[in-house]
Design goal:
ornithine cyclodeaminase, domain 1; globular; about 325 residues; 11 helices; eight-stranded parallel beta sheet; 2 domains; homodimer; ODC_Mu_crystall (chains A, B); 16 strands
Chain lengths: ~325, ~325
């Protein structure tokens, strides 16, 4: 069995590759050429949970196992920790185990990268709200999938921005300017693409449709029913609402709320996969916002895990253990 | 993360210890001091399946992930392959991964060992039907939990018996005689405990209640709805039917069939855990058979996995990898 640490994963996968793998993953999703059992989401203690996401696709059995422990906020351990295990689909044999924490951040960013490449590959300005690990990789995906020259960042806690900028410049060779925005309004005004990467329970951008005309808004952060980053008027002003996963309609407040409140009609919710394979058509006008929301799914984790496993094996990265 | 191969597991756990851990596990089960989400059982391709069994107990998150691939019968790989992963319940961090194939055989045998110790620790004769890996470990559990001096073995395919005997004597120092029985009837006649460890869809012992008076019948093999090793008259002649898991009532043909056919009343199905902690009482007479059936559960896997993890760590067994 091949064991891959966070560093091994980083070494085996560029952001460009990750975006390409996710573009292929959207095609696989559209063709429904996979088996994805319902995930197990359960309480370990108090607010701390364990999530199991299996998917069988191509030549692999993929399993992501993630703990989400808010109680770790009082400790040094990260809140989210996970692994991805790969078994051979032909024989069932477990063949790979890798760090899933960083890989999840890369994958989630790569999914946004596919949307940015699809809708706004010519964009030169990006705005990011929320400067955590997720935001960091979202920016790496943005510079890979667009013509980004200037990036605006905002955080509720401004002290977090300088260390974030340093970390970002460490991770990329591209010359791109990163500018602190003092207000969210300023950031939106300056950016063609606006990425929200927070775990907010209520909207983090203003409820004013006029601000978003012709812009792409990418919602990344909210992943639970009670979380919502995007505001009512944004949804009402868009012709379509583009999402990555049909299951998002029952998992995520940013999709559940707009449907239940009637801000978006179900028929106007479009899967990015359907746009990519040409099953549906959407030509956004410059008078409306484009909204993309990712909740991800086990299929994406299985495909990126399988890719990393194969790549690492080719390059002799990682540790082989007997099990 | 500590990685333990099959050999490391073998080195870290004696059968005696496994039986003791399982006895404690029955007490934990009776006290309901654990969280056990529904398992995910799903098809990977054709008859090949993947099973995920999580359980949170003591200081661990335990997860058993097992593939069952009948298609491997045409290959050199084993049909069943699995791992057990242990995460720290306090922080969520993944800390151990071990071979789950052998450990499952040891654990299943240890569960039978608890029942044999409880009902028949003075037995000197054991009969085993089915000489696979499971049967091998059942015998090791039998000699640990009884006064076994003579063991009778039967297999539908007699050529498998000699290699089985050799393998058995390799695994134990105890002087115990292993004798081939030419017929199942002969085996039953000679044995105080009869263990069935096959994957048969229909009974492997005769449908004649007079054969089993005063004996303990341990059903191990059947684990699916369509499998049944034990016959109608056996069930009808027993005062109680002792099982290890409440969930067995919807998982296993050897429990489903007797209930649905009315051979056993639900009130006469007793959990071994309830006997062990004295919640219920059962004094078998020498005129009736005692029947014990194990289907096991994620709780047992988590507890044995956690025990092996800690023991291996203490003894510096296994390989530590960064993940």
């Amino acid at each position: 069995m091949l064991i891959l640490s966070e560093n091994d994963v980083k070494q085996s996968l560029s952001m460009r590759e990750a975006i390409d793998v996710m573009e292929q993953a959207f095609i696989t999703y559209a063709k429904q050429d996979f088996i994805m059992p319902d995930r197990i989401f359960s309480q370990v203690k108090e607010e701390d949970t364990f999530l199991l996401m299996p998917c069988y696709v191509d030549d692999c059995i993929g399993l992501k196992a993630v703990t989400s422990f808010p109680s770790n906020n009082e400790r040094s351990e990260p809140v989210t920790q996970g692994v991805i295990m790969i078994n051979d689909r032909e024989t069932g044999t477990p063949i790979g185990l890798m760090d899933g924490t960083l890989l999840t951040a890369i994958k989630t960013a790569a999914v946004s990268g596919v949307a940015m490449r699809y809708f706004k590959k010519e964009a030169t300005t990006i705005g990011l709200i929320g400067t955590g690990l997720q935001g960091l990789y979202q920016l790496l995906a943005a510079i890979e999938s667009t013509e980004a020259e200037k990036i605006y960042v905002y955080n509720r806690t401004p002290e977090k921005i300088e260390p974030f900028k340093k970390e970002f410049h460490k991770l990329t060779n591209q010359t791109v300017e990163v500018v602190t925005s003092d207000t969210v309004e300023q950031l939106i005004h300056n950016s063609e693409i606006i990425i929200t990467a927070t775990t907010s329970l209520s909207p983090v951008i203003p409820n004013d449709a006029t601000l978003y005309k012709g812009k792409l808004v990418v919602g990344v952060g909210s992943y639970k029913e009670n979380m919502r980053e995007l505001p009512e008027e944004l949804f009402k002003s868009a012709a379509y609402y583009v999402i990555d996963s049909e299951d998002g309609k029952r998992e995520c407040g940013d999709i559940i709320d707009p449907i239940q409140s009637g801000w978006v009609e179900n028929k106007n919710i479009v899967l990015l996969s359907d746009l990519i394979i040409g099953n549906r058509n959407y030509e956004p006008s410059s008078e409306e916002p484009i909204i993309f929301k990712t909740v991800s799914m086990a299929l994406f984790d299985a495909l990126i895990g399988n890719y990393v496993y194969k790549k690492a094996q080719e390059q002799n990265v990682g540790v082989v253990v007997e099990i």
